[in-house]
Design a protein that fits this description.
Length: 508
């Protein structure tokens, strides 16, 4: 059976190849014609001179074609800003000096990690100065005994995982974008991913962090204590703040022990009731070794196999639903036996119709590839309307059915997949190209539907620019009011990632 090391070495690099896809064109001005640039200073030679005086030449990028284009556009090629400057600090102090200056000079700043976000949160909307954390990529310390790693914000997730594995530890989060996303960006967006079912989200795994506030002040919350009840836990404010309250520069992460046995199963299922029963029985029978439970519907599997020329697993038939299960444990024989007897039981009682268990790391990788490259496959198909929602588990697939009925006869593909174990559905609708008519058929209907289930209109991708107008479909007006107050308190001049999270302007 496969080991985690082998698995990790081969899986998931979709962002590097997908970056070449240019089909998903929409761009900010088309979809957001009502957006107005805030009253910020324009970049002048004097400003540039200041940044050049405190940073080295390779930390100040100004060449529009050769340097800036990749920073100005998001991975989906759907939001594009027109920044004229990328700053690449190497230390927390440099971040502090930059922000202090920008705050004093009324210059807007867009903090950026690996730029793998899906809601337009990590790219400028107008000409905000981009602050890229990519040069701050050091792993400062890893302690196997306590399971604590301290790392700079710009460290790419995959690099961090490789180093953790050498210390018999692993990351509490895993994403398809791990080859290019950065831990600071993950923390700033409270990224979820495929292990959340097992290890919970970053609000639990981040023990401490350093954040630089809008005025340049360095807030040292870099605690490594697992227990600390000395008043308010301020670090939590920065986790999921999408760079609007401060710039995260260092993170102390609690890392679980590295599993030595990883098993992957793939099941074909005839009805959504049986999908739910599979989840229930998997939880009951696998217990704590269950580390992922992902749903893929037939439409998603069809898309990923046809667009990326991948082979479907060897099952007897096509099914409306597939579940990908992963276990992570420390005893290969025990874990394999558990998964095999689950498979037998599910087949025998008719909950699943067919299933396969990976016999080696190549097969496991191939199964994961089918799940993790769906986003890339969708992007290569045409324009993608993306929804990342939390819904009560029993209603997980209803929204997909409702949307198919609503968009019947239109030339679209409607896919439902995602993190079933967490109630996090990825609903994606593709069409040949962007159409505002189609968009109006989908939104705000989708958000309204989710709101009526008391779900979340953004489960793990954040609000960024694309979802900001829908915040009140999930958060109460009182919550939004206090969020705005908090933003005003931390960033009174609204220089940090403006136009994100909140609809309108902060003065409204
Ligand atoms: O593109 C999407 O909708 C989901 C992307 C990512 O969160 C995933 O789980 O693959
Ligand atoms: Zn996801």
């Amino acid at each position: 059976m496969s080991s985690m090391n082998k698995l990790s070495a081969t899986i998931r690099t979709f962002h590097s190849s997908a970056a070449r896809f240019k089909k998903n064109v929409e761009f900010t001005a088309v979809r957001y014609p009502y957006l107005k640039r805030g009253n910020y200073s324009f970049l002048s030679d004097r400003h540039l001179g200041f940044f050049q005086s405190i940073l080295s030449p390779h930390q100040v990028l100004t060449d529009e074609i050769n340097d800036l284009s990749g920073y100005n556009v998001d991975w989906m090629h759907s939001v594009r800003g027109s920044s004229r400057l990328v700053l690449r600090p190497k230390t927390t102090e440099e971040v502090g000096a930059i922000l202090q200056y920008c705050n004093a000079q009324n210059i807007a700043v867009c903090p950026q990690g690996g730029n793998t976000g899906l809601v337009g949160g990590s790219v400028p909307v107008f000409d905000e100065v981009i602050m890229s954390l990519g040069l701050m990529d050091a792993v400062i310390s890893v302690d196997e005994l306590s399971g604590i790693a301290i790392v700079q914000a710009g460290c790419v997730l995959e690099k961090l995982e490789t180093i953790l594995h050498l210390n018999n530890l692993t990351l509490p989060l895993d994403l398809g974008a791990k080859g290019s996303c950065q831990i600071g960006g993950n923390v700033a967006t409270n990224a979820g991913g495929i292990r959340l079912l097992r290890y919970g989200n970053l609000h639990g795994s981040v023990l401490g962090l350093t954040a630089v506030l809008a005025n340049g002040q360095i807030m040292d919350c870099l605690s490594t204590n697992k227990k600390d009840n000395t008043g308010y836990d301020l670090k939590q404010l920065f986790i999921g703040s999408e760079g609007t309250l401060g710039v995260v520069t260092q993170v102390a992460l609690h890392c679980p022990s590295k599993p030595t046995s990883v098993q992957v199963g793939f099941f074909g299922i005839n009805s959504f009731d049986n999908v739910l029963e599979t989840l229930r029985l998997s939880k009951q029978n696998l217990g704590e070794i269950l580390s992922s439970c992902e749903l893929i519907d037939q439409s998603s599997l069809e898309c990923v196999t046809s667009q990326l020329k991948l082979k479907s697993p060897d099952l007897v038939n096509h099914f409306p639903f597939y579940i990908l299960l992963e276990t992570s444990g420390s005893n290969a024989d025990h874990d394999a036996e558990k998964l095999n007897s689950l498979l037998e039981m599910l087949l025998k009682n008719g909950t699943i119709v067919d299933g396969t268990i990976a016999v080696d790391s190549t097969q496991a990788t191939n199964l994961w590839t089918l799940r993790e490259r769906i986003a890339e496959a969708l992007a290569s198909e045409g324009y993608v309307y993306k929804y990342d929602v939390s819904v009560p588990i029993r209603q997980f697939y209803q929204l997909v059915d409702v949307m198919r009925a609503r968009l019947e006869k239109l030339p679209i593909r409607c896919c439902g997949y995602g993190h079933l174990g967490d109630g996090n559905l990825h609903l994606n609708i593709t069409s040949q190209e962007y159409s505002s008519e189609l968009l109006n058929k989908i939104e705000p209907f989708v958000y309204d539907w989710v709101s009526r289930q008391r779900g979340s209109v953004s489960a793990e991708h954040g609000l960024g620019l694309k979802k900001r107008d829908y915040i009140e479909y999930t958060k109460s007006p009182t919550s939004v009011h206090w969020m705005r107050r908090m933003k005003k308190l931390f960033d009174p001049n609204n220089i940090l990632n403006p136009y994100k999270i909140f609809p309108g302007t902060l003065n409204e």
